[in-house]
Design goal:
2 copies of one chain form a homodimer. Chain A has helices at residues 37-45, 63-69, 87-101, 119-134, 180-189, 203-213, 215-222, 233-240, 249-254, 275-281, 343-354, and strands at 2-7, 54-59, 78-81, 106-111, 115-116, 139-144, 155-161, 168-175, 192-202, 260-265, 269-270, 290-292, 295-299, 305-308, 314-318, 323-328, 331-336. Chain A is an alpha/beta fold. Chain A has a 5-stranded mixed beta barrel with strand order 6-9-7-8-10. Chain A has a 4-stranded mixed β-sheet with strand order 12-14-16-17, with no helix packed on it. A two-stranded antiparallel sheet of chain A has the order 5-11. The longest helix of chain A has 16 residues, at 119-134. Chain A is globular, with a radius of gyration of 21 Å. β15 of chain A pairs parallel with β17 of chain B.
């Protein structure tokens, strides 16, 4: 049967002061819709995978937030990581767990904090992807058709097409974030797609791939055979999980395996990985200003994002060009969007100067 | 005996969102010292006039704030105006009231919302001023030695010196706010002083001046003779006060009377009448940034004022030049200081767009 694994253990400081260590981005209602990014992701997959087969993998720290935001998820479907080890151990554990519940399982694994505007295309892509991976020993990743020479994304280069399967290709290469020149070349070529971190495979296929390409991680989790989906799982994971090497699924498996495919899709997707990405994904006024969750009276502002956590608060601004204005009860950020890569360092400074309550 | 009248009925929107109709500037702790401007003014006069002879005149609306901020002031010393009529009626009433308590009284009348950095000079100026006005029928105003060609202040031109009284002069003229060119001429001449709105006279002298120069106001308040400082005063004022014409003491008396003198002083004074004035009066960092009641982590900001009402809040900012950043729980202002004269209009717009909770 088909399963879904939503990875929601991420901790990001790029949206500081909005995202906090105690409440990272996936738990925030970024668009004022009343649903957090995680909730929106959960809602979105239900059309393809029923709630009882949706699993959430997260850091132990976020268990209360998960239960608060997704009370409909059975506790047995929440896998709590005792340590942060990037995506490879997370995916390996989830695959073992699901395998124990259903040896025939196929799985879609995806991040909890991305934006997908074209829901129907998303559902179709997942259904076609499941059909594809269920036919054989295949590892599939979704490749987003690029709409701009983005330098913030990794790219997937397509290889030869899969016969009879429109939009499916062998993967020729994975590429790190390119510089602008290279990104333009990628865009013009038509062969490169954004790596969205959405993967499909059979549980059996990914576990086989771990054995072949990441034997160290494979060994850590294979030692728990017989304990997964039993009362013994928690104690085993508490011991074993922290011993797994920290690694991404891309490095551990995707860039090494030979049975890797890409399904190219147009999902109205953004990883919302930066204020700029959030700005691009949000409705603008005529001068490129974006208002998130607040009322703004502005004069002569351009390309500025106003994000306020208190919906009762107003902002009056004039003359700002290309700024991020982000306000929360204990922190106010007013920063040039062009320098947003410095915000991570700023957060480090904030912790040093003002203490942990602010990060 | 010597009395003090602190005028604290002002309502100003120039410091929005800090000052609000419900809590105007004089009630705010602008410098994070733990005392509001009114409290600082009160503290400052106690050296010269004892608390039991300090009177507060304010609009009825602010009675609870006055009692909260100055519980040591006897209720009988709080004169509550039933309507807003500028300074002339306020001063005329207070003089009648004090005259009824002490026909020999001399009075210093001053605003509640100014900054005075040189306390000792202030005390000396008041003591010398009292001595001067107690010797005859004289109306005295303090003239602040100008330190810059300020266009935001009215100016007093000195006339011939008072014999044997250093720093005391007849007043030759009162001048409205000049343009920059004229202000430079004033400054260079050495004859012009800032009008600080601090006045000294005997109760008898100012009431005589009202009779001569503003008979209409004089008639309104003279009708209450015998009721001042009695239980009948409140009912009389409730009826009479609103019938007084709205007028400033400068127009009504000072510009007309011939017995007007100026005592020129250096008090480290500012009327704190604008963000710019507040900026100038506050300690700067090396790049002209001012921080009011908050902690700021900034890069590449210049000549920017950061004012936050919540002392627990932090601000992170970059690249702002010449900005006012003012944050309160329900309103955030980010405005070029060079356009601060527009803030009054902004406040009107805010009321229209967002309602009275924000002004």
């Amino acid at each position: 049967m088909r399963y879904c694994v939503i990875m929601c253990g991420g901790v990001g400081s790029r949206f500081w002061p909005f995202s906090r260590e105690a409440r990272p981005k996936q738990f925030l209602d970024f668009f004022g819709t009343g649903r957090s990014l995680l909730q929106l992701t959960f809602d979105r997959v239900l059309e393809v995978v029923p709630a009882e087969r949706v699993l959430l993998v997260t850091n132990r720290q976020y268990a209360p937030l998960i239960r608060e935001q997704l009370p409909e998820v059975p506790p047995a479907n929440i896998l709590l990581e005792p340590a942060r080890r990037n995506t490879a151990p997370c995916i390996c554990w989830a695959a073992h767990h699901i395998m124990a519940r259903d040896p025939e399982a196929s799985i879609v694994t995806l991040p909890s904090d991305h934006l997908v505007l074209k829901e129907q295309a998303f559902h179709t892509a997942l259904r076609r992807g499941f059909e594809f991976v269920e036919q054989g020993d295949r590892l599939l990743t979704l490749g987003i058709k690029p709409t701009a020479p983005q330098t913030g994304y990794g790219y997937i280069q397509q290889g030869r097409p899969v016969e009879g399967m429109e939009d499916f290709f062998k993967v020729r290469s994975f590429t790190e974030k390119p510089d602008l020149e290279l990104a333009k070349v990628f865009l013009a070529s038509g062969e490169f797609f954004w790596n969205a971190g959405i993967f499909l495979w059979k549980a059996e296929s990914i576990l086989k791939a771990f054995r072949e390409h990441d034997p160290e991680t494979s060994a850590v989790f294979s030692a728990g055979e017989g304990l997964y989906a039993t009362p013994g799982e928690e104690a085993f994971i508490a011991e074993a999980f922290p011993t797994a090497p920290s690694n991404s699924i891309d490095y551990a498996i995707m860039e090494k395996a030979s049975n890797v495919y890409v399904e190219t899709v147009d999902l109205g997707w953004s990883d919302l990985g930066s204020w700029k990405a959030l700005h691009d994904a949000s409705p603008h006024d005529g001068r490129g200003n974006v208002t998130q969750g607040c009322r703004v009276l502005q004069h002569d502002c351009r390309d500025t994002i106003f994000a306020v956590s208190d919906p009762g608060k107003i902002v009056v601004a004039a003359g700002l060009e290309g700024y991020i204005v982000a306000d929360t009860p204990n922190s106010l950020l007013i920063y040039p969007a062009s320098q947003e890569q410095r915000i991570r360092n700023v957060v480090t400074d904030v912790r040093t100067l003002f203490g942990p309550d602010y990060v």
